[in-house]
Here is the input.
Amino acid sequence: MGLSVRHLLGIEHLSPSDITSILDLADTYVDLNRQANKHSDVLAGLTQINMFFENSTRTQASFELAGMRLGADVMNLALGASSIKKGETLVDTALTLNAMNPDLLVVRHPHSGAVELLSEKVKCAVLNAGDGRHEHPTQALLDALTIRRAKGRLHRLNVAICGDIAHSRVARSNIFLLNKMESRIRLIAPKTLLPSGIDQFGVEVFDDMNEGLKDVDVVMMLRLQRERMDGAFIPSEREYYHRWGLDAKKLANAKPDAIVMHPGPMNRGVEIDGDIADDVTRSVIQEQVEMGVAVRMAAMHLLADNIREHKQKELMA
Ligand code: NCD
Here is the structure.
């Protein structure tokens, strides 16, 4: 089934059936990606531009590979923070690119809302690859695919999201998604790392890891986002690890088959013990990376179907 949206700006705008369509198609791309010949021509003839105004390794590589495997012409623009300062506004950059007739624009930007603003100025489909603290929809989708493949479902699971929630677009997108798919969400964090208005999120809140992790099916750890902190949010990294870092002792509170997730990049010994991260009987961190490519292929495939349908209608009119 097609998507109800023209752009992938956030999970907030997706319906449960949009989410299921992306995950179902992504499952087929996981199979393709495990073959020797990973090539398809679903995006042949289309131009994909990746615009990253903020550093990224895995997300950019993942989008690039996804586009290449589907046969798109892929161009990377690594803009970094410096080009924002150069004076050209985001809107001017968008208009310049728009004039080059891309079909898919993948954008990461340090400011919340910047990607949506850009989507209003261009004619192509825009995918949000992370905007400030706002949303990171493909991360939540790849997390959902990882969970669904490990647990067989997305509904009625107990999912703990732990750590630096206040600064995390990953947490926000996951909260939207897991709520839409009817899982139960627990947030575990020091009070200083909880966003304001948390009571409207439909979640349970804990500040004690042992209590919050009791009988959960999924433990999702978050990176301490020091680059987004402008003051002292935690006592010290040592103290943080002691109270909120995931180690074997705290994990023992979760269900025996609970999976451990982390979007990367990890601060080992700060939010997660290195041995837990590497324990393939518990950690699905590498699977998350694999699912990332498949989910991005699926999302771009479905948006491209919308583009083609739209172009067809334009021609007929
Ligand atoms: C996340 C991001 O950039 O929001 N990482 C990622 O996409 N691989 C999480 C993070 O930076 O901590």
